[in-house]
Specification:
Elements (H helix, E strand, L loop, with lengths): L2 H34 L5
């Protein structure tokens, strides 16, 4: 593969990793808020 393809795959991997990390942080924030403020049943 040429240098452009390798660089493109590297940037795509960083982008996908960042998206996954942000979604994980959002999920943990929601779970933490659910523990702090449980819903009324």
């Amino acid at each position: 593969m040429n240098e452009v393809m390798i660089e493109t795959i590297r940037i795509m991997g960083i982008g996908m990793g960042t998206v996954f990390l942000v979604l994980m942080l959002f999920y943990l924030a929601v779970r933490g808020l659910q523990m702090l403020f449980p819903g009324n049943e």
